[in-house]
Specification:
CATH superfamily of one domain: PDZ domain
CATH architecture of one domain: Roll
Radius of gyration: 28 Å
Structural class: alpha+beta
Shape: globular
Largest sheet: 4 strands, antiparallel
Distance between the termini: 19 Å
CATH topology of one domain: Pdz3 Domain
Length: 454
């Protein structure tokens, strides 16, 4: 329940911030160009909060449904306009002014992403070094000559420091060049060059982890069934278990890892277990009776102990990237550009059928992603905000009527032909735009629901 609440609150914060930034772009440029703004609303539906500026008369509104927003401007096409206000009506401005006002929304999304990424780099970004734990036989990585223990150093001309860098660059460079030049450092410390064939973009962009699809398993901390910190009132501590005990067997069953041990404990509420442990190189046989606790409609066993964490192994592979103000903004600009280009390429592959439509996510997946990133810290949450902002900016630039990009397309036509696109054509385009957006939302919700039940 707490996880759902965190995801919901994180989603509301993320969408509200990004919508506000987007609409502020329209708002500020409209005011700078002399258009009369009537209302600035974050959200749709019932008004939760409203403030009317005594100087400008603009209504500032926060509404109940935080899935969008709008800036209402004076426009003769929507309502009669007094003669003295006609020069301030949106429709009476030059096509270049209207183009600038509409383009400002997506532009501010990209500007916000630069600031979010820059802030992330100033706070400090943590990640794991791109060390390979396993290579699947006969996979693309295996055929390229990659081996367990290798650390990825460079993909084409791009240096990679973490697995996040590696995954994004493998996709981006794979789409661009097909075969990528990959530099690795072997366990002996030697640098070697290999060619990785990523020309099969359908495989690379199918649903799922791209690293898994090419046969790479990244190094991750494997949680052994070893006892760590005890909670207050721990059943295990009360029955003689100590931190550092390694669980070998439970009721004659060999315990594989921590998750296996957790399942065995959960299945024994108030039931005695015969446990074989390894303590200071000695095998001991002990008994353990987990406490019975209620979890929803189920009664499960619990012993009140966390797993032992090999912090030395993590610290040896942990990379922390922290930059000064100027370098952070330089990297923020580069990261925003890279992510924008990659998103546009992926959209192109979706249109041509080379990428799976299952990669399209809706609000449920975004909420889950936002919730996880919020719990991981401010830097990770800022990265999530930047990604969502870039996605909304690019989505709004698509030449689809109803979106900013559709209006910009009409304005470009107007610049060429010297007159506005007819209202009949705009009305027909609006109908097509509604159908396309409805179809996209249905697909996104369908994917979300499929992920929930899979």
């Amino acid at each position: 329940m707490n996880g759902i609440l965190v995801s919901l609150l994180s989603f509301i914060v993320a969408i509200s911030v990004i919508v506000t930034i987007h609409e502020f772009g329209h708002y500020i440029v409209a005011r700078l160009l002399g258009v009369k703004v009537l209302r600035f609303s974050v959200g749709f539906g019932r008004t939760l909060f409203k403030y009317i500026s005594p100087r400008s008369g603009i209504e500032y509104v926060v509404a109940a449904l935080p899935l969008g927003g709008y800036v209402k401007m004076l426009d003769e096409r929507e309502e009669p306009v007094a003669a003295h206000d006609q020069p301030r009506a949106f429709n009476n401005k030059s096509v270049y002014a209207r183009f600038a006002i509409v383009a400002a929304g997506p532009l501010f999304n990209f500007i916000f992403a630069i600031f979010a990424y820059a802030s992330m780099y100033m706070i400090g970004v943590q990640g794991l070094a791109p060390e390979i734990a396993k290579v699947e036989p006969n996979s693309i990585a295996y055929q390229a000559g990659l081996l367990p223990g290798d650390v990825l150093v460079r993909i084409n001309d791009r240096q990679v420091a973490t697995w996040e860098d590696a995954a994004l660059n493998l996709i981006g460079e794979g789409i661009k060049t097909g075969v990528v030049a990959l530099q690795k450092k072997t366990p002996a410390g030697d640098l070697e060059q290999h060619n990785l064939d990523l020309s099969d973009t359908r495989l690379l962009l199918a649903e799922g982890d791209p690293l898994t699809k090419i046969g790479i398993t990244p190094w991750r901390l494997q949680l052994a069934a070893k006892l760590g910190e005890f909670a207050r009132g721990s059943a295990a501590q009360a029955q003689g278990f100590l931190a550092g005990d390694l669980i070998l067997q439970a009721d004659g069953v060999a315990v594989k890892d921590w998750l296996h041990w957790v399942e065995l404990v959960k299945n024994h509420p108030n039931k005695e277990m015969n446990v074989v442990i390894l303590r200071q190189q000695q095998r001991l046989v002990m008994t353990l009776t987990p406490k019975a606790v209620q979890q929803g409609n189920d009664t499960i066993g619990r012993i009140g102990v966390k797993p032992w964490i090999d912090r030395e192994a993590i610290e040896a592979r942990q990379i922390v990237t922290q930059e000064n103000f100027f370098e952070a903004f330089s990297r923020g600009w580069s990261k925003t550009l890279d992510m924008s280009v990659l998103t546009v390429k992926l959209l192109g592959k979706l249109i041509t059928g080379e990428a799976s439509t299952k990669n399209i996510s809706g609000p449920i997946s975004i909420a889950e992603f936002a919730g996880i990133s919020a719990q991981m810290g401010l830097a990770t949450f800022l990265s999530t905000l930047a990604i969502i902002s870039i996605s909304i900016g690019i989505l709004n630039l698509l030449p689809v009527p109803m979106l900013d990009g559709g209006h910009l397309m009409y304005y470009l036509v107007e610049m060429v032909k010297g007159s506005q696109v007819s209202e009949t054509i705009q009305l027909q385009g609006q109908k097509i735009g509604i159908m396309l957006l409805a179809g996209l939302m249905l697909l996104a919700f369908y994917n979300d629901i499929q992920r929930l039940f899979s």
